[in-house]
Amino acid sequence: MTNQTATPPTTTTHAAPPRSNPLQGLDWRRYVIYIGFVVVFLIFAVTLGGQGFLTGGNLLNIVRQTATVTVIAVGMTFVIAAAQIDLSVGATAGLASVVTAMTIANYGVILGIVAGLLTGLVVGSINGGLVAFLKIPSFLVTLGMLGIAAGVAQWITASAPQPILSDAYNKVFGSGDLGPIPGLVVWMVISVVVGAVVLAKTRFGRQVLATGGNPDAARFTGVNTRSITFRVLLISALLASLAGMLYAGQLQSGRYQWGTGDELSAIAAVILGGTSLFGGSGTVVGTVFGALLIGLINNGLILAGLDTSQQQVVRGAIIILAVALARRK
Amino acid sequence: MPSEPMPSDPTPTEPMPSAPTGLAVEMRGIYKSFDTTSVLRDVGFEVAKGEVHALAGGNGAGKSTLMKILQGVYTADQGEILIDGQPVTHSSIFEAKAAGIGMVFQEFSLIPTLTVAQNIYLGHEPLRGGRFINDREARRLAGEVFKIMEVDIDPGAVLGDLSTAYWQLTEIAKALAQNAQVLIMDEPTASLAKHETESLFQLVERLKAQGISIVYISHRMDEVYRIADRITILRDGRRLFTKRLTEVTPAQIVEGIVGKAVEGGLEYKKRARADSPTALLEVRNLQSGTRVNDVSFTLHEGEILGLAGLMGSGRTELARVLFGIDPLDSGEVLVRGTKVDLSSPRDASEHGIVLVPEDRRRQGLVLDHSVRDNLLLPVLGKLKRGPFVSDRAGRSLADQLIERFQVKVANPGRPVRLLSGGNQQKVVIAKWLGTDPDVLIMDEPTAGVDIGTKSEILETIRRLADTGKGVIVISSELPELLAVSDRVLVLRGGAIDSQLERTDIPNEESLQLAVQGV
Questions:
Q1: Which of A72, A90, B236, B473 could cross-link with A263 by S-S, CB 3.0 to 4.6 Å?
Q2: What is the predicted ipTM?
Q3: In this complex, which of A25, A203, A281 lies closest to B380 when CB atoms are compared?
Q4: Cβ of B73 under 8 Å from any chain A Cβ?
């Protein structure tokens, strides 16, 4: 409620001027992911410095291990900001990895890359079409698509790994380096930068946020909310298929298991990064830090000597804590 | 009340004596601030038993905060509350309810998928064997409540199938079923048609006769005079006065709310109009569903066209078709002489037709987004520098719109939900003006805004028409239509019943008769 009234200005200064303290209006909850990232980093740096946490190799490793999930999470940021969800990204990545590998084996690298991206295009168009035009909830559509994509990937490969023998492909998509920087990290940076600019600085990005914030008002303001919904699901599937191709290049084979469960990591990264689970607000940069925080925690817990079961418990608890802190009143 | 025998014990059938016998609510020296903003300062408020007490004040005067304190939503920083003479320190809605405070929300607190009875007893359902919900008993009890209210509603009907007027009655029954002795009604007639309003007033009279007190929040002067006994006016977080309505003139009330005498924004002003103006919008034989039947009319440059009609007469539906929300089955629409295709709001706004929708919170604004983002949403295409939206151009355009429409906002970067209703409405109007439309359709443009802002909005409508735009104003408030319209179309059953030049309408009564179809 504003307290602005039409009273004439008074000369007395008994009331504090509205914006005297610049920190007062600062909503620290929006920055909780960055604060959390720094705090966790410092804790690990102090306690695990001796176990090699701070070495350049280890830090680069953390980034490398989160790169693929980050690529998926960039797409997921658009989906969640538009108040939708995409559960099929992990399975789409797996499907894209085997389609790429099989096409490369039969028709060469170029067509392999095209086939991998085409996988994302097809999956994304089906998801987007069903959600945007037939108004089926995205939770159900993409849950179904998760099963379909995973099943097709397993079916066409008869559950066998599909080796990729093209060195060129493997180098470009994940195994190679660009100078000192791992190629995977380069892919991650590209998708993050493009994603961040598109969401924050373009008309499309604003319309995604408006659609997620209030679809009725957005439609009544001339936003084509159906097209927006369609496009966010398409973007998500395309980035998932890129992630699948990166898995394939990094591990020099396509396998239906690649990407399994990545949807949950990606959703966790997006929510940790401050995107509202109900849509309407979100940033790609926040998502990156969400993904890195998860990677950081994984790495630190391994160095601390926790076994896999303990890691899962601690990781789960930290995620709940962070989201609870970032929650709006 | 078994504990205390009543002092005098006349025949039990005698209704409450007409003179108040005590205070149902007494609030003393209430202070409340949020962060550093002081919202209420030393406010007192008393409601007698069986009294209808109007509460009025401009946006930000503190009336909703005061009522939220009474309901236990907020806790006062200082001050006392006595209910039925007993001091209470309610710090939650549950305690306030237990003390007999009931609220009829402006935006209903009802669940459309449940039945009327289930809604009324939600959270305190009658149980069978102390464990299982007894829906039959709930229906019976709800029936009893409706009997007391003397209204006819099937308690077993699913709420979503009923019209708004029934929602309102259900909301009231819900409060009464919880033994409310004090009912707070916030703009209860905002979504009611004239005859529904009348039956609400009769209900209020009956409740009053049963000793129930009512706090009546409304911006509508005629209603306040019609049913309230006393009025309290708040301004800038203080109580300006409490008076019997027999002792105060409407002008004093309005001046009290606005803080200055209103400069006649609510009066009809003759505006200069061109002799042979260009036709901006021509509608020919429009047909859509069952609610728009063979509608034809023309809107000219610089003209304000009022649409009058009862609820369900097809006013809103006509607006929805023209804005591309609902499809048109047949007929055609021409903008500046060219036939246009209106299959989505996007098409409509590109052809220069825009809508200020009736429900600004749901359809007009992205509430959690900033004032600036809401203002810029329709014009993002204009702000593009290459593929990117220019922040600098956006800021300056938003600032211009804020200034032009006198939106009172300290920081355009803050969420629009923090603004008062009137200022939110200005944002909805302003955002469209960035697109420089030809035709503005405004559906209930002043619903729920205070009288000062209402006057400003009506003045804005006139200014827009003076700059050559065509404006269609839909309103249930006839004085408002009469204040701005150059011409009034009366709709009935989805068809145009009559077209009246403003100068041919002598007074509100004659328009009312036309609307009622007498």
A1: A90
A2: 0.76
A3: A203
A4: no
